[in-house]
Amino acid sequence: FTEFYERELEETGYKESSHKMYKLTLTKIKAFRKVLYFEDLTYKTILDFDRWLKRQPGLGGSSIYKHHVRLRTFIKAAIRHDYIKVSNDPYTRFRPVRGEEPNRPYLNADELASVEALQLEDEVLERIRDLFLFCCYTGLRFGDAIRLNVSNIEHRDKGLVLRMIAEKTDKPLELPLYFLFQDGDEEGSRPERIIKKYLAELGQLASCTGAERIRFFPYTNQYVNRTLKQIATLAGINKNVSTHGARRTSATQMAT
């Protein structure tokens, strides 16, 4: 089964974000038991896997539930390929418990201003701060924000517009950056000023082949979240600041 899972994962053509999560679950399965055969997939094995997950540090109920959901996705695929009988699906008897989503706090207006006001000499810290702020201003998902490049920015009479295919929904996304978080600055709205900074940085590479595909923020979610803790400390914010918290900050600020 573990070989089937790995082969199916590579051949199905999942989106990058889904592929990463399915592979993470496969890593957990192999850590639990290096090789799983189809006949191993019994109620007892799934129960043992659930108990093993609960003993792993840093895994909450929500994460454990998602591992079960992903595992069952590939068990269903194995059933479609006739490797497992429908009657032998262990999840017809085992029901994983959906855990509570982790608390991801948002920033209030004063805290957001503190992050904006930071004078950062480290280039990486500054870029990750800008990435976080851009997500706060736009509500953009992290997976979309890290794919941003020159080709996603359209210049119109009123200002800059972001256009891309959203990773999660696979649908066209169009955001008028000039309309968001306006504060009367001649350089444009707050998200526009961030984008203009990186457009100017890449301007000298405009003649190079592929320059329009260079990402503004080429970082992983884990690295950004670790760095955001450092930025929050520098800004005097005693909260677990994260990339998902940026979306919550955006929604809260828009609502108020």
Enumerate how many helices there are, as a single number. 10
* Oligomerization: single chain
Number of strands: 3
User: Beta-strand percentage?
Assistant: 5-15%
Characterize the largest beta sheet: strand count, sense, and whether it forms a barrel.
3 strands, antiparallel
Radius of gyration: 22 Å
Give the integer mean of the pLDDT values: 90
List the helices and strands in order: HHHHHHHEEEHHH
| Terminal residue distance | 51 Å
Helix vs. strand class = mainly alpha
Low-pLDDT sequence parts: none
How helix-rich are the residues, as a percent range?
Answer: 40-55%
Which strand order spans the largest sheet, edge to edge or round the barrel?
1-2-3
Write the layout of secondary structure elements.
Layout: H1 2-12, H2 16-32, H3 43-54, H4 61-80, H5 109-117, H6 123-138, H7 142-145, E1 153-156, E2 159-165, E3 172-176, H8 190-203, H9 221-234, H10 243-255
Antiparallel strand pairs: 1-2, 2-3
Helix pairs in contact: 1-2, 2-4, 6-8, 6-9, 6-10
